[in-house]
Write the structure tokens for this entry.
Amino acid sequence: MSFQIRDGFLPIHRPVAARLFWEAFSRKLSSTMNPPEKAMAFFEDVMDPGHAISAVDQDGRLLGLAGFKSPDGAFIGGTFSDLARFYGTFGALWRGPVLALLEREVDGKTLLMDGIFVAEEARGQGIGSALLSAICERARTMALSGVRLDVIDSNPRARALYERKGFREVAQSHLGPLRHVFGFKSATTMLCPVS
């Protein structure tokens, strides 16, 4: 399968990107963001193409995407009022603090990856590797020292890909009782130097 890597994504890709994001991360986010229709509508609304790199096929279909977070913003952003538009004020009041538990801060030295996903029918074609390489190149062009990401314990396939691409474990965090909310026990912070 031939594909191209591009900065950002086109407006026509928003609904597909939101669906693929939900498919990739619903296990971690479903207890907070369900029902799926609202979650996908919210993500579609708050995705920032300026913080994304996409893979498209020769017909222009979105095959995969890698998002990142910088001091200027994030691939998946959103404010309290964005949450309230989709979930109501009460829904936003409890969802906001729960989602804040998953937030990771940028450090000014590394590019923080904010999610990577590939459409199921396009997996195994090198798209994930190409997106990771593009994220590392983006960090280089921003004069950063590396790319940082978190991978959850229930996603060994992703961790294996990151290790093949030069990422190494630098820290691990355990969720304790929150594992019942998010559906995973621990997350490993990994770093890939790019300089």
User: Anything to note?
Assistant: The first strand starts at residue 3 and ends at 7. The radius of gyration is 16 Å. The longest helix spans residues 80-100. Strands lie at 3-7, 52-57, 62-70, 73-74, 110-118, 146-152, 168-174, 186-193.
